[in-house]
Design brief:
Number of domains: 3
Distance between the termini: 83 Å
Radius of gyration: 31 Å
Helix content: 25-40%
Strand content: 15-25%
Length: 474
Amino acid sequence: MNFETIIGIEIHCELKTNTKMFSQGPVSFGESANSCVNEIDLGMPGTLPCLNKHAVELALRACMGTHCEIDPLVKFDRKNYYYSDLPKGFQITQQFHPIGKNGYIEISTEEGTKKVRLNRIHMEEDTAKQFHTNYGTLIDFNRAGTPLIEIVSEPDIRSGKEAASYVEELKNMLYYLGVSDCRMEEGSMRCDVNISLRPEGSQTFGTKTEIKNLNSISNVQKAVDYEIERQSQLLLAGEKVEQETRRFDEATKTTVLMRKKEGNVDYKFFPEPNIFPILLDEAWIEEIRATQPQLPSQRKEKYMQEYGLSEYDANTLTQTKELSDFYDEVVKHTKEYKLASNWCMVELMAVLNKENISFKDNPCSPVHLAEMIEMVSKGEISSKQAKVVFEEIMKGKDPKKVVEEKGMKQISDPNEIRKLVTQVLDANEQAILDFKNGKGRAAGALVGQVMKLSKGQANPKLANQILNEELKKR
């Protein structure tokens, strides 16, 4: 029997704000435990929440990037449950009135582009973080109250590859929009994947299991692939898949039971009484829409349609926002789009990777790189000389000064080169005879003599052209 896999993904994404969702407590990562909290985060009696406007703006940007219908009436609800990582005894969320719904994103699959529908995007606050030890459980409240959006897909995903592609596309989109830093390894983007199997052709959903807190795109695919195999074996053996929550064990590459689900938890949702409904100004929403950054797909299209780059180059340049941003700055100062893409993708990235330098600390100025590219394009320096200049640019130096100091400005004046060629030919009569007798290498040797005489500054292409012209005259 063949089975169809049904996958839905819930992604919790921390918003890129300086303060918490409902307080002035700072948002940070890696600080000392319990050093970034205040009375509101800890749920102290008498404290009242105050909504973070910037968090709402970022949530709106996420909705716009995923083609969601936006609800301008912002309402919050209480999700009541008692757990040690929830200081108030409830979580403020948007159960009944999500800020966005009915959206979609497009992903690349082996069959082509596929649209994955989004059920909703809602805002909420994060919980504290627990550390389980042999001596008990420790709690760090630094994360409590951090602004989150939860993005819930429809069950449109059908494989581990599609799941990974979906998470990667969403991650890139949110990062390009400045909504989140999307550092999955730090927990600022976490995935819960729901998986069920059903016989091919069936319209009834099977029993689903949930895999919690997947922290990398690679692990999303591995966890899904394993769970599909596990459920398939159970069903083929005539056994039932039980509804349960599992986690992915990286060491064994398997999913492990966390807890069984016997029914839905009653969270006793009700409207948050301390945050009145807020009607967003339509002009403010449109202002956000008008300043929406370009998405990776939009940049790819621009690179191919306007700049004439190949699909490979466009994909490579947009793999990271930092590289794409740098390239965009370079081409503000040169129209040599292909040459600029080569230097950014190959030479620049090679040095940054080798030296383990981040773009934040990149010593190469986009303006300097563009100036050097222009010199190559105009024939002022050769491609070989450009590599020497580039080494100096990576030290923060001005390419024009480097060329001047090293005396490497290329000679592209035909009259100057013809004088050099004449000197070489006058001194190498035997080479001329060899050339006339069909020895092609003789011409190459003569070009080498011209380059040597010019101390490497003659334009090689022009030198070769003029040399052949003069040889035919002799």
